[in-house]
Amino acid sequence: MELDDVRVDAYMTTGVETVHPDAWVTDVVDRLKAGPQYGGLPVVDDDDHLLGFVGAIDLLEVDGSERVESVMSRDLVVVRPEMTVKNAARVIFRTGHQFLPVVDDERTLLGLFSNGDAVRSQIERTTPSKVQSTREMLERTHSISISVTEREIRVPSLIPTQREVYGDELEGRKYELQNGLAEPLIVVSYGAETLLVDGHHRALAARQLDIERMVAHVLTVSPDEVGELGLRKMARLGGLESLADIEVNDYLQHPLIEKTEPAQ
């Protein structure tokens, strides 16, 4: 399964603590003091239908005798369980939300997908399978045997093989790099050149953060064995000689993202 196929429901947090709209504000304050993971509580009815969210900011200067339904936020961004992790992560990093409620067609709360879940999905789905598939593709295409090592490479020397990246995902990769969470790149060492195969967002984020070196899985191909490597030809035909040639595009809204209507 490719990363683009991984769904939100594979990584969302279930069994989320919730609150009823009839609860007293004072009770919510006590629960928030106990430190819920998301800094607030989803508000659901008796059938677990999502009605809103109540957080600390909603309770500022609010009398404890008020009901939750009178102070909760009703204008939420929600996603469906079948949305891909990659697209949900883009929404999180683009909008600045710390989490997204996951609901079904009936607006039943299924779980929460947080920025932490987005990072976890990337870290837990490590690169060995992608490295192996890249290795097999190159060996099959060029009828050669390829060695793989893991070592640091110079970011400024990378030649990309992908023309564009998403701006919001780029911000997410900066977060990962700044917090030591980024997984290794996959590159091909081809003589004096280093071709970037996987990790264009991470590499470009590193460049923007002035990070000189990153860990990578390095597949070594000798120019003596392969006269013209297909990946090198792809980069040449695309006019890609350095990370500066990559275009950064904004993310277009995904059809599975929706705004909830205030509950009646």
UniProtKB/TrEMBL annotation:
This is CBS domain-containing protein. Keywords: CBS domain. It comes from Haloferax namakaokahaiae. It comes from the Archaea. The keyword Cytoplasm does not apply. PANTHER family: CBS DOMAIN-CONTAINING PROTEIN, CBS DOMAIN-CONTAINING PROTEIN CBSX3, MITOCHONDRIAL. SUPFAM superfamilies: CBS-domain pair, ParB/Sulfiredoxin. Residues 12-70, 72-129 form the CBS domain.
